[in-house]
Design a protein that fits this description.
The protein has 358 residues and is α+β, with helices and mostly antiparallel strands. It folds into three domains: 123 residues, Alpha-Beta Plaits (2-Layer Sandwich), CATH 3.30.70.100; 124 residues, no CATH class; 63 residues, SH3 type barrels (Roll), CATH 2.30.30.60. Helices cover 49% and strands 17% of the residues. The protein is built from eight helices and eleven strands. It has a five-stranded antiparallel β-sheet. Strands 1-8-11-10 form a four-stranded antiparallel β-sheet, with helices on one face. The chain has a two-stranded antiparallel ribbon with strand order 2-9. Strand 4 and strand 5 form a beta hairpin. The protein is elongated and about 105 Å long. The two termini are 13 Å apart.
Length: 358
């Protein structure tokens, strides 16, 4: 049974609305799981901080030991050894600082996607600071170092255009957030749930695909360069303010059927399969539409049923409802089974097309 997704509207004037703020509530089990993962990550960070601190102490001790006259046997290399030891010491201090900031972010942030993005930015800044520290200690002449780095950057810029554009696209993803970790998206031919946003590419856990006609996970991972975000449209099914989509299921009944009974039955079955909160989401969606520049839109009744004449010999009945993208396949299957069961109990009111042409 095929279906379509979209947002149906009917024309009317835009009423004055109020600003709303909707948050996706987690269940107590999800909160417990998030806290458990965060606690494990904090523990891991503490181990790293301890290891980095030990390395920093060793480097600082090596720097002071190299001040002794006994090491003058190294001659001109002694100064190089001193620079290396002190530069590693300060580089490790930067690593320790980065780990401490990451630990604070993991403890304080409640949003998984925000935490993921902040950690990525912190690690990038940490690497940049380490490079600055190393260059400043190993190169006394900053002008020479800057010219050398400029020439190297120019050469790499021509050779690595695609990776550089992907890195710029990563910055766009972080700050403009066309999608986040955990979102279900479609970009170009790829559809899936975002499991990782790297500096150069994004990884999706595919749903549907070549071997499935439903929206269930296919088991394949898709990795595409971030630069595609700057060149293709991104369809995000997990908008934080309204993480739902409209689904549509067609049923075919004969002309002689009691269409009012069919409509009532489909509405009853659909409401029974969906959570009670879904009806409230319609009001939320109406308020969101009022906040847009669109002047004449209104959301229809939920769920709603429409009729149209099929090109063959039956009436096509379409039931449209709101659903979470990742639960769409299971809910659709339950609605189809229960709707057919209920309508089949009244064969005098609901008649289905017969013959091979249906």
């Amino acid at each position: 049974m095929s279906y379509k997704s979209g947002i149906p509207f009917a024309a009317c004037k835009k009423p004055a609305g109020k600003v709303i703020h909707m948050d996706i509530k987690k269940t107590s089990d999800q909160n417990h799981a998030v806290k458990k993962v965060a606690a494990e990550k904090v523990k891991t960070h503490k181990y790293w901080i301890g290891g980095y601190s030990f390395i920093a102490v060793l480097c600082l001790a090596a720097y002071f030991l190299l001040q002794l006259k006994v090491f003058e046997i190294f001659g001109e290399r002694l100064q190089l050894f001193k620079k290396i030891s002190i530069s590693i010491f300060f580089a490790v201090l930067v690593l320790i600082t980065g780990r401490i900031i990451e630990m604070l972010v993991v403890r304080r942030s409640q949003s998984k996607s925000l935490r993921y993005n902040l950690v990525r930015v912190i690690r990038l800044l940490t690497v940049l600071f380490i490079l600055v520290v190393i260059v400043s200690f190993l190169f006394q002449n900053w002008y020479t170092a800057a010219v050398s780095l400029g020439l190297i950057s120019l050469i790499l810029g021509f050779a690595l255009q695609v990776p550089i554009s992907s890195f710029i696209a990563w910055l766009y993803i972080i700050f403009r957030t066309p999608y986040r970790v955990g979102d279900r998206i479609q970009i170009s031919p790829f559809k899936g749930d975002v499991v990782e946003i790297g500096y150069l590419d994004t990884t999706l856990w595919e749903f549907g695909g070549d071997y499935l006609t439903s929206d269930m996970p296919s088991g394949r991972l898709i990795r595409f360069p971030n630069s595609m975000v700057l060149q293709s449209a991104v369809f995000n099914y997990s908008w934080p303010k309204f993480p739902y989509i409209w689904n549509e299921i067609p049923f075919h009944v004969a002309y002689e059927s009691d269409l009012e009974f069919v409509e009532k039955t489909l509405k009853t079955v659909t409401k029974a399969e969906l959570s009670p909160e879904m009806a409230e989401r319609i009001n939320d969606l109406k308020d969101l539409v009022r906040q847009t520049p669109i002047d004449e839109l209104q959301i229809k009744e939920y769920p709603f049923v429409t009729f149209r004449i099929n090109t063959n010999t039956w009436v096509e009945v379409l039931v449209t409802y709101l659903v979470e993208p990742k639960k769409a396949s299971g809910i659709r299957s339950r609605i189809v089974k229960h709707a057919l069961l209920e309508m089949g109990k009244e064969p005098d009111k609901v008649m289905f097309p017969k013959g091979n042409a249906r």
